[in-house]
Amino acid sequence: MSNKRKQNRVDLDIYLNKYVAGVPYMARTFDISREGVGLAHLIEPDQAGKRVGLQFQLPGSEEVIYAEGEVVREWADLDHREEGSGVRFTLLTERHRRLIDQFCTRNDVQ
Prior knowledge:
Elements: E1 10-11, E2 15-20, E3 23-32, E4 36-41, E5 51-56, E6 65-77, E7 82-92, H1 94-107
Antiparallel strand pairs: 1-3, 2-3, 2-5, 3-4, 4-7, 5-6, 6-7
């Protein structure tokens, strides 16, 4: 699988709320970058929308980050019953963008 992101990915293993058509579903992250987040699907509708809301806390932070994003990639590994998606951030406050940037900088292993 090719890496289409322009920014380096940083491992991130947390649960978050993913809002699809205004309804919250639990998802699990596996990485984050300054541009978006990789999600493993847990339970959500088959016809999930392309535009989603995200609500999460970064490790070591008390602040809840609210973001909107667009699903730019989806995949399924039927052998292991795993599904996931890549979500590109489309709306973030400047404060939340800085928090994500700081987290990625602190945890970037090059």
